[in-house]
Amino acid sequence: MAATAERALGRATSRGGERTLGISAILALGVSAVLSLVVAPPDAVQGEVQRIMYVHVPAAWLAYLSFFVVFVASIAYLRTKRTRWDRVAAASAEIGVLFTALAIVLGMLWGKPVWGTWWTWDPRLTTTAVLLLIYVSYLAIRRITDNPSRRARWAAVVGIVGFVDVPIVHLSVVWWRSLHQGSTVFRLGGPEIEGTMLLALLVGVAAFTVTYAYLMTLRLRVGRLEERAAREALSPLVGAER
Amino acid sequence: MAPNVGYVIAGYLVTAIALGGYTLRLFARARGAKRRAQTIAERRHGGV
């Protein structure tokens, strides 16, 4: 299972795979923009501003996915001690922080005209802010020590424990009285959204997923190159030949 | 112009800048790391 995942990862992270994913991401984001800004109708109550949903929701879902990958890769690292899994977790955490911050900023831009405020200490907003802090801390912890195995071990523990906040964020609108709307797609009785709007939303999620895959391949290459540079710099041969 | 369209434009601009900016930053980091590794390797093989 782990070997199959590693082979798939190897194929996706080849330069050809990276280029294909990059082109696919640009095309998918273009199609998504047309669907959400031109084809989908304005909302009956909120009007045009509801179009922010087509980027806000995919950003939030991709943040969940990124942190799920951190969670799985962290478990895989602790079980196998293979550096590749630590590299995957670090890459996904960085991209997850980007998507979480993006979801928060987009939510603020949507909240101001609809709720009348940029920010409120609502359960969904607060738990999402905590999620951002957890994974910013994860990235900070990775900079505390230069010892690669210690760094990977500490990060893996935070990556596993930190994931606890993801279901809390998702269920916060169910558990507590929240200003934030509840689930529109994954709900009992089917999605509560018009057909074209649902299509635009799902295409948006697909486009963001391809973009995530592309960013992962690129970030993994950066990780490999930075490790190579660090290895070269620390190699005792440099000193011996000088 | 319909009301609140400015928020939508700002939202899509922020998304494009965040994703595009991060991608460019990754390219820059890759180039920097490659250059660092090459410089050190060249120094070693050149016997500097």
Any overview of this molecule?
The complex is a heterodimer of chains A (242) and B (48). With 242 residues, chain A is mainly alpha-helical. Chain A has nine helices and no strands. Chain A has helices spanning 2-12, 15-39, 53-80, 83-115, 123-141, 148-162, 165-175, 195-234, 236-241. The mean pLDDT of chain A is 89. Chain B has a domain at 19-48. The longest helix of chain B is centred in the middle third of the chain and has 41 residues, at 5-45. The model of chain B has no long low-confidence stretch (mean pLDDT 88). The interface between A and B is medium-sized, with 39 and 29 residues.
Structural class of chain B: mainly alpha
Task: Kindly report the greatest chain-chain contact and the residue count on each side.
Answer: A-B, 39 and 29 residues
Helix residue percentage of chain A:
over 70%
Beta strand count of chain A: 0
Number of helices of chain A: 9
Oligomer: heterodimer
- The DSSP helix count of chain B reads 1
Q: Which residues of chain B form runs of ≥5 with pLDDT under 50?
A: none
Integer average pLDDT of chain A: 89
Element order of chain A: H for helix, E for strand:
HHHHHHHHH
Contiguous uncertain segments of 5+ residues of chain A: none
Helices, strands, pairings?
The complex is a heterodimer of chains A (242) and B (48).
Chain A: H1 2-12, H2 15-39, H3 53-80, H4 83-115, H5 123-141, H6 148-162, H7 165-175, H8 195-234, H9 236-241
Helix pairs in contact in A: 2-8, 3-4, 3-6, 3-8, 4-5, 4-6, 4-8, 5-6, 5-7
Chain B: H1 5-45
